[in-house]
């Protein structure tokens, strides 16, 4: 507890979106899902490398995991839980929410949660949409999450971008349902020159780390916690190359993979980090 009269520092939330290198949005029109089981699996080794980095730096994080991965790698899920991290859902197989109906989304949530909870033995109360695909096209999504008993979602990127984004979203935590307790925790963006700029994942890999530090500082000064995300495949410079993918997809996916581990180590050292469920509880109390 902080001394009397001193406000507690908000939790900055570290998160990992656990998926295979071939399950990313950049390759969704290039690699057929029917071929996934024939491709080289690297998610276990890559996630173990992330776990080792967190152990080295004393960080507890949240792992938003595909049900598809949990079903095939239950021992990995158990290792994540045993290390003190939070398990949360990333859906079943990385299908974007705005491509589903409400009923399809409900079924996807149930299937993924069952696989993750069976593997890890930990209740799943958090959700992140693949490619931050909850936006103005999915007005029913938060209601479905609330009905399923989720306490928070971190599924919105509050900016305009060609791949995803909901520019009309608040920058900080908000309650999407007037009659519910569900909290939406938008991923952290930097405010620069009247624009919102993305700071996690590939943006963190390719842009100066100072941009992410700027965003964390801005958010903390506003008495909120930052939410950072990345993927296990981003610390794997030796992963297979998809030569027939569009040039833009290849640039986004493969650029500076060899720099990612070092940049992460620096980010983890420069700021204090915790789990997303910790931040969700803090923001829920603030919004009460």
Would you count the extended β strands for me?
9
Radius of gyration: 18 Å
Strand order of the largest sheet: 3-2-1-9
Structural class: alpha/beta
Basic shape: globular
Strand content: 5-15%
Distance between the termini: 21 Å
Main sheet specs:
4 strands, parallel
As residue ranges, the low-confidence spans are none
Mean pLDDT: 95
Number of helices: 10
Instruction: Write the element-wise H/E pattern from the N-terminal end onward.
Output: EHEHHEHEHEEEEHHEHHH
Helix content: 25-40%
- Oligomeric state of this protein: single chain
Any overview of this molecule?
- The protein is of the alpha/beta class.
- 38% of the residues lie in helices and 11% in strands.
- It has ten helices and nine strands.
- The chain has helices spanning 43-57, 67-72, 74-82, 102-120, 141-147, 201-206, 209-221, 247-254, 257-270, 276-287; strands at residues 13-18, 62-65, 86-89, 126-127, 152-153, 183-184, 189-192, 195-198, 227-230.
- It has a four-stranded parallel beta sheet. Strands 4-5-6 form a three-stranded parallel beta sheet, sandwiched between helices.
- Helix 5 (141-147) links the parallel strand 4 (126-127) and strand 5 (152-153).
Walk me through the topology.
Elements: E1 13-18, H1 43-57, E2 62-65, H2 67-72, H3 74-82, E3 86-89, H4 102-120, E4 126-127, H5 141-147, E5 152-153, E6 183-184, E7 189-192, E8 195-198, H6 201-206, H7 209-221, E9 227-230, H8 247-254, H9 257-270, H10 276-287
Parallel strand pairs: 1-2, 1-9, 2-3, 4-5, 5-6
Antiparallel strand pairs: 7-8
Helix pairs in contact: 3-4
């Amino acid at each position: 507890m902080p001394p009397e009269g001193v406000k507690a520092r908000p939790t900055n939330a570290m998160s990992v979106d656990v998926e295979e290198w071939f399950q990313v949005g950049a390759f969704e029109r290039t690699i057929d899902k029917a071929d996934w089981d024939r491709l080289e699996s690297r998610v276990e080794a890559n996630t173990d490398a992330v776990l080792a980095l967190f152990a080295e730096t004393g960080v507890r994080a949240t792992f938003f995991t595909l049900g598809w991965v949990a079903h095939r790698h239950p021992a990995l899920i158990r290792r994540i839980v045993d290390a003190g991290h939070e398990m949360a859902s990333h859906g079943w197989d990385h299908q974007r929410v705005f491509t589903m109906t409400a009923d399809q989304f409900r079924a996807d949530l149930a299937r993924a949660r069952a696989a993750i909870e069976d593997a890890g033995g930990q209740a799943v109360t958090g959700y992140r949409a693949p490619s931050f695909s909850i936006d103005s096209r999915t007005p029913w999504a938060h209601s479905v999450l609330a009905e399923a008993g989720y306490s928070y979602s971190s599924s919105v990127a509050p900016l305009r971008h060609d791949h995803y984004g909901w520019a009309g979203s608040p920058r900080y935590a908000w309650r999407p349902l007037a009659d519910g307790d569900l909290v939406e925790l938008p991923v952290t963006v930097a405010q620069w020159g009247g624009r919102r700029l993305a700071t996690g994942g590939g943006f963190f890999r390719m842009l100066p780390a100072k941009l992410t530090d700027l965003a964390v500082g801005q958010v903390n000064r506003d008495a909120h916690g930052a939410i950072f995300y990345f993927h296990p495949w981003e610390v794997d410079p030796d992963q297979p190359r998809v030569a027939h993918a569009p040039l833009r997809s290849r640039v986004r996916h493969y650029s500076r993979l060899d720099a990612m581990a070092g940049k992460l180590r620096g980010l983890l050292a420069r700021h204090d980090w915790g789990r997303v469920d910790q931040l969700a509880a803090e923001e829920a109390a603030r919004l009460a």
